[in-house]
Structure prediction request, 231 residues.
Amino acid sequence: MRVLSRSCLIAFLIAGLLNFPAFAANEAPLGLVTQAQSAQIGNTKVEIGTTIFPGDILATDVGGTLRLKFGASQLYLLSASSASLAQTATSNMVHAMVSRGTVGFSSTGNDQIELEIPEGVLRAAKGEPAYGQVTIIGPQEVVISAYRGTLVLEYDGEFRSIPAGKSYRVTMDLEPSADPQAPAGVGGSVPSTKKALNTPTLVWALVAVGAAGGVAYVIWDVLSESSSSPK
Prediction:
């Protein structure tokens, strides 16, 4: 009996070792790093050619940059920025949750990328090539810029388009709405009140692109050039 138990245990361990590489291989890579300076994945320094997987947390130091390629689309992080990556369950869209700094993307319309920020989820309009970025200003404030193509921000089931060449400062209004006052009752009737739902709303303010437009053009030029034949 002891020999039989030991044999079963050995067989179980061998089977586990054989299945481990297959299990690890099931997680397909998202893309790879094409440019890196003072950047990390978790606590590990990033090098050009590093493979990126779902769940990776990307970050750049002050003065750092990071550029990733996902198929024909690209994602970049500017100085002092951070984002975590995932892949949507219903499609091949790359999902980047932005936590700080400036993060942007360029999409050909085929390989899509979306950015999640506290104010919603930003992506290119369906089927359109686009290039845009977000800059986290504070916990409830962000600047969204569309440099090429139309971007769409989805928040609480509503959609707002940002046309090319426009930048908006978007702020979450967390102040609770005042309770509506019912008119005074007649003949001794008791006034009634209804408590309004405290649902955050987004406040949009158009901001001038100005010098940022020139910077955006340079970034777009870099993102558009082939990594195999740089200018």
